[in-house]
Amino acid sequence: MPNSHCTLPPLNALRAFEAAGRHLNFRAAADELFVTQGAVAQQVRMLEEHIGFPLFQRLPRGVALNSQGSIYFAEVTRAFKILDKATSQLLREPKTVTISVTPTFATKLLLPRLSALTAAVPDVELRTVATESIADFDRDQVDIAVRLTRPPFPMAFDTQLLFKQTLVAVASPHLMANRELPISLEALQEMPLLHDSHHHWPRFFGTTDKLAGAVFNQTALALDAALAGQGVAIACQAFVQADLNAGRLVQVSESTLTVEPDYYLVRKKSSSSTPTVDAVWNWCVTHLALA
Fold it and tell me: What is the arithmetic mean of pLDDT over 251-265?
């Protein structure tokens, strides 16, 4: 396939031509570009050789654009204005970082710490995509993702373990008010169980039997129901630790269950990674990693 840019002249030659065309004087153009008059003349001559015909009439005092030069000058000027406008808009745009996380991770870990993140990286506009779907970094324009995954990882990605899935059974203290904690697994199985899409309860009890109880498509919804006193939920300890510390939830059983895969911070390796993306990544490693 032919190179579509093969006819483009050197940028320095275009800059010299544009400045000389505005001033109609090589010395004035040289002063603007902080080069010598001879350098401007050389760049213009290089451009004329590149395109195959002269662009200026050389006069005793300065220069004048010929007919072809005038047409070319108008187009080159327009192109430089487009580049200048595009660059100005880019510099004015906020530095955006898109992070893809699961809904429960967003609700329980990221959003409560959002003000701390914006304080640590004040120039960032963080876009949070909460989804259970696997992010396509290129198609979805995602910079960083948090996902349940396991090694080995493709060489094209950076990864950082955040925490393992240690599951605990939790409920509202109001629901457990008349019970002495912790309760046995037998007593727990008689409680109203709140299920999510991960279906961890059978593994927690070591059974293959189907267990009764309300079913939610997200762990965050099951935890909301638990907070409302509707039953006992099972969730990764990292997602409920703040509620346990605040007394909004209690751990109802001493039993825990560690399951795979683990929660990892993931991003695509890139030679063009921006300082803002790096800053958000480093903040997440420092403040979200509980491993």
Answer: 94
- pLDDT tens-place string over residues 149-182: 888 888 888 999 999 999 999 999 999 998 899 9
pTM of the predicted model over 0.70 = no
Could you give the dihedral angle defined by the CA atoms of residues 236, 239, 242 and 247, in that order, rounded to the nearest 10 degrees? -60
Comparing 101-115, 126-140, 143-157, 238-252, the range with the smallest average pLDDT is 126-140
Q: How do beta strands 144-149 and 257-268 pair?
A: antiparallel
Sign of CA dihedral 174, 180, 186, 187: negative
Q: Evaluate the omega torsion of the peptide bond into residue 152 and state whether it is cis, within 30 degrees of 0.
A: yes
134 phi and psi, to 5 degrees?
-75, 130
19, 33 Cβ separation under 8 angstroms: yes
